[in-house]
Write a structure and sequence with these properties.
Helix content is 10%, strand content 53%. With 154 residues, the chain is mainly β. The protein binds 2-acetamido-2-deoxy-beta-D-glucopyranose (NAG) (2 copies).
Length: 154
């Protein structure tokens, strides 16, 4: 499993700006993802999140997951949202997001590498996926990040 593309989109430049949003190939099967987002209006306390997944088959088609929830509640009680927990488990040790709200600092993910063990809690047939995650603050959508992921073994 590896990243094949990565896009960060700010929907409100007065709120958030991406300083870094990139992939770096470490080897044929390992690609590291890094992101640095500058937040201009902190602290951030009221955060909504939508995560949906698409699988490639004549274009990207909706796949199984589409979750909209209160991010601050999720990060406190992550086990209640298995799909979100799977993402957080993969990201947390490479980032500074693993704490409860409020967020009063820039958001950084450094050299995140996907490992197949991260997927084992849920079924992921071989293929190309798009994982799209959007965040809203005070009910206003602020960012979308799109991770393109290739799964080559089940
Ligand atoms: C997921 O849900 C959101 C919000 O309800 C909606 O806008 C979006 O189109 C849905 N995505 C898919 C893939 O169905
Ligand atoms: C993330 O936070 C949770 C809850 O505080 C903790 O159990 C876990 O060990 C943390 N993970 C990392 C990688 O620091």
């Amino acid at each position: 499993i590896k990243f094949t593309n990565f896009k960060c989109i700010s929907l409100d430049k007065s709120f958030v700006d991406f300083r870094q949003c990139r992939l770096k190939a470490l080897s044929r099967n390992q690609v590291a993802l890094s992101l640095s987002a500058k937040l201009y209006q902190v602290p951030v306390t009221n955060v909504g999140v939508n995560a949906d997944v698409y699988k490639k088959a004549n274009g990207y088609r909706p796949f199984m997951f589409n979750i909209t929830t209160d991010f601050c509640r999720f990060i406190k009680y992550r086990k209640q949202t298995p799909f979100g927990k799977m993402i957080l488990d993969a990201v947390e040790k490479y980032s500074n997001i693993n704490h409860t709200c409020p967020y009063d600092h820039d958001i950084i993910i450094k050299d995140l590498v996907l490992e197949s063990k991260h997927l084992q809690s849920l079924p992921w047939p071989m293929g190309d996926y798009l994982l799209k995650i959007s965040f809203a603050v005070n009910n206003d959508w602020k960012v979308t990040v799109k991770s393109y992921i290739q799964v080559t073994e089940e």
